[in-house]
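Lecture 7 notes: from sequence to structure.
We start with the chain below.
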Amino acid sequence: MKRTFASLAVLVLAAGCGVRPTDVLDGGAPASGVPEGMRIYFASDQGLRGVSRPDREITDLSAAVKLVIAGPNEAELAAGLTDLTAVTGEFSATSLGGQVTVRLPRTPVTGVAGMAAGQLVCTLSRAETLLHGTRPDAVRVTVIAQGGTVGPYQCSQFLTG
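Predicted structure tokens for the same chain:
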């Protein structure tokens, strides 16, 4: 009887758990971090939306602000995107160790509040990552405008679902 149980146990173990061997499966290329190219952010009914500008080379942070001010193209307008910033006059943008500061001395702080601030924060975060290799989650953006300061903010604070 013991011999029968031992033989039965060996047969069960030999049958395994039902998982059959497979060939080696190719999982594709590994994730490679931040996608290439510049993205700028505009407002929509669903929140901020990033759009690619792969043909635009960013050489400094002020160039990123200029892209926001230029507004969405016709296709983006048709898709419901809009620029809520009310940037007027000169501006400058600098960074030090991932801390980005944009100065808008002639723009009232109300012109860069809420989702408008998000447009600048997310666009400048992207530019900082491209220009200086700062991790996106390490970038903080402060906007100094006429009558006040907003931030420092991270882009993730403005992105929804």
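Points to note: The chain is about 30% helix and 25% strand. The radius of gyration is 26 Å.
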